[in-house]
């Protein structure tokens, strides 16, 4: 697990919008092939870009599986076949990187606006010791977060260091494989929200879209007046941009297993500055900083967004 501190720009009026996305599973473009290679939906990705560009202060967090490389179960078989043939591995890397350049270009609009990119299951390990997700992070000037990470987001009003709040997160590519949305949320709740103390938990992988606040956490005060400090953990799972049911005879494993079709989508965590009466904030670390109408705090709104612009064929 990687532990990361981020200081994204925080607008005095608009705050920031954190776009949480993953599971594009873009496939190599073949000559004469349709825009949507495999299950990847180009139109959904374009809608995501439109919403990103409409935001006054967009930032992103990638949860992995940006391309559709070998699954972990197939990787040992391919590596075994290649053996110690460095020349063959170089040829394979060249083929992969050619299509990986297309992924970099498709995500260029987020350059220098990412708090981090996670590694997913569909990643190609290069002969030089790196992998395609590290290469993507480097190209977009983004921190590489590995498979899972903790975050400390330092939210500071411009030109006033005293007006600072901290938002904490735990994010990961994920492993939940349930057929229902509540299965993915239950996995995130049981394995992370119940063991880690943070404000927000985010996960991809499962191709499910949902969010919830499973409980109000009660932390017994260690100092000061007797009592508890209350906080509300927010859970977010995001679906992605790859359809399980595609047109044509090349059926995906989702179709063959009879899984429930899921909407394409992503998440947005909207963080807005707020002035409240002097009392402990819910879910955010306290720090002194008072305005004319009370204490500076952050309003947190976690939501899912869905691809809705598809036209009838």
Question: Can you describe this structure?
Answer:
The structure is a single chain. This protein has six helices and 14 strands. It is 21% helix and 27% strand. The protein is of the alpha/beta class and 313 residues long. The radius of gyration is 21 Å and the shape is globular. It has a single domain (2-306), classed as Purple Acid Phosphatase, chain A, domain 2.
Topology record:
Elements: E1 2-6, E2 16-21, H1 42-54, E3 58-62, H2 75-82, H3 86-106, E4 114-117, H4 132-139, E5 148-156, E6 164-172, H5 181-193, E7 200-203, E8 210-212, E9 217-220, E10 228-231, E11 234-237, H6 253-256, E12 265-276, E13 290-291, E14 294-306
Parallel strand pairs: 1-5, 2-3, 3-4, 6-7, 7-11
Antiparallel strand pairs: 2-12, 5-6, 8-11, 9-10, 12-14, 13-14
Record keyword descriptors for this entry.
313 residues; 6-stranded mixed sheet; alpha/beta; Purple Acid Phosphatase, chain A, domain 2
């Amino acid at each position: 697990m990687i532990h990361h501190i981020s200081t994204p720009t925080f607008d005095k009026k608009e705050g920031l919008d954190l776009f949480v996305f993953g599971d594009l599973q873009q496939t190599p473009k073949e000559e004469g092939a349709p825009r949507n290679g495999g299950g990847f939906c180009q139109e959904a990705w374009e809608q995501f870009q439109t919403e990103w560009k409409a935001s006054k202060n967009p930032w992103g967090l990638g949860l992995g599986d940006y391309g559709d490389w070998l699954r972990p179960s197939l990787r040992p078989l391919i590596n075994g076949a290649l053996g110690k043939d460095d020349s063959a591995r170089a040829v394979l890397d060249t083929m992969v990187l050619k299509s990986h350049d297309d992924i970099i270009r498709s995500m260029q609009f987020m350059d220098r606006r990412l708090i981090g990119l996670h590694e997913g299951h569909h990643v190609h390990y290069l002969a030089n010791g790196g992998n395609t997700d590290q290469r993507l992070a480097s190209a977009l000037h983004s921190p590489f977060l590995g498979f899972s990470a903790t975050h400390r987001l330092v939210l500071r009003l411009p030109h006033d260091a005293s007006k600072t709040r901290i938002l904490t997160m735990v994010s990961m590519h994920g492993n939940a494989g349930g057929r229902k949305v509540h299965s993915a949320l239950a996995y995130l709740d049981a394995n992370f929200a119940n063991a880690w103390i943070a404000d927000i938990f985010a996960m991809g992988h499962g191709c499910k879209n949902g969010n919830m606040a499973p409980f109000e956490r009660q932390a017994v005060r260690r100092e000061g007046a007797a009592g508890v400090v209350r906080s509300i953990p927010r859970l977010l799972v995001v679906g992605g941009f790859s359809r399980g049911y595609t047109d044509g005879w090349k059926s995906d494993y989702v179709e063959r297993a009879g899984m429930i079709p899921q909407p394409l989508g992503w998440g947005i965590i909207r963080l807005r500055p707020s002035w409240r009466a002097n009392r402990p904030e819910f879910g955010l670390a306290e720090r002194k900083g008072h305005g004319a109408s009370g204490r500076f705090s952050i309003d947190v709104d976690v939501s899912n967004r869905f691809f809705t612009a598809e036209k009838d064929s």
